[in-house]
Amino acid sequence: MHQENSKILSIIIPVFNEINFINKLFDQIVSYFNKENVEIIVVDDGSTDGSVNLLNELKNKKFYKFQFNLIKLKKNSGKGKAIQTGIKNSQGEYILLQDADLELDIKDAKEMFDIIIKNKDIKCIFGSRNLSGKLKKNNYFFNNLVGKINSLIFNIFFSQSLSDVHCGLKILHRSVIENIKLSVNDFGIEIDLASQIVRNNFFIYEYGVSYFFRTKAQGKKITWVDGLKSFYYLIKVRFFDNSASTNISILYSTTYMGYVGSYFGIGLGNILFIIIFAILGSILGIHFKILSTTVIFLSIYIGSLFGKGNGTTVSVALFFVLGILIARKTKKYFLNTSFRNYF
């Protein structure tokens, strides 16, 4: 747990069957983070390949200046659980999350730390494999595609502009950690972490990093199943892990926008419009509470009173945009008042 006079940096490294990378990993950590005010927290997630024995050997040699803590989980519980355990046992003013498989370069982690330590206004930096002009090696098309789709969906859901929400290299100030409560135990931890950071109004900076993929034969553990599960976590963190007022707003907006969609098209086309408008309504309900979204609904209704045929469609679209603009202004006006939960 966090203590007074704690370390400046805690590096949390989840490990599961990484015996082939541990020696090189530690060589790099010693090269870039060998200081007394740094602590390395390795959380072994039930490894069965001898990783724990090798980690114990490295710990006992004590050829380093940093504090080295080794935590052993009795059974494999997932990357998310290992990270949560490491955070609970950390002391650092800053928390750096680093994978053990060396797909992400320790040198980039040091560069990110140097940036955040010199800029007190920056509380959170995510590494991005899609921004860098650095070396990148990756021929897993499907994994790469899913990652980019997930980042796009996350941006739509949370009004962000992140390029790589799944990158495992992140550094956070202690104030960020103290305002979130992680609960996901597997690879969905990346989405859980990012969503809670945004919900607590911390700005996420990005920094381009190198990426050297490894094959399944080399021990890569994430699969297409994890890719599909990530879609579930996106839905969960956006549409279910909300306050009661937000959930009510989502239900309300989904219903009335589905109703608006019923006035367009015929047959299967009508059903398609209802579905599209309902999805749009659910997204509106995320960003606007009950009264703000009512403003949008009333604006759409007024727009429907003008024109005929295609003219009505154009009128509804224009008044829909107008309604969103008015709702945003209204939301901003009441944001710091006791009525904010209604707007």
In short:
The chain has about 350 residues and is an alpha/beta fold. It is built from twelve helices and nine strands.
State the main characteristics:
343 residues; single chain; 2 domains; alpha/beta; elongated; Spore Coat Polysaccharide Biosynthesis Protein SpsA, Chain A; 9 strands; 7-stranded mixed beta sheet; two-stranded parallel sheet; 12 helices
CATH-scheme architecture of the largest domain: Alpha-Beta Complex
Question: What gap, in angstroms, lies between the N and C termini?
Answer: 38 Å
Helix percent band: 40-55%
Spell out the CATH superfamily of the largest domain: Spore Coat Polysaccharide Biosynthesis Protein SpsA, Chain A
CATH fold label of the largest domain: Spore Coat Polysaccharide Biosynthesis Protein SpsA, Chain A
Radius of gyration: 24 Å
Tell me the strand percentage band.
Answer: 5-15%
Structural overview:
With 343 residues, the protein is an alpha/beta fold. The protein folds into 2 domains: 9-239, Spore Coat Polysaccharide Biosynthesis Protein SpsA, Chain A; 244-342. 50% of the residues lie in helices and 13% in strands. Helix 2 (51-61) links the parallel strand 2 and strand 3 (67-73). The radius of gyration is 24 Å and the shape is elongated. The model has no long low-confidence stretch (mean pLDDT 88).
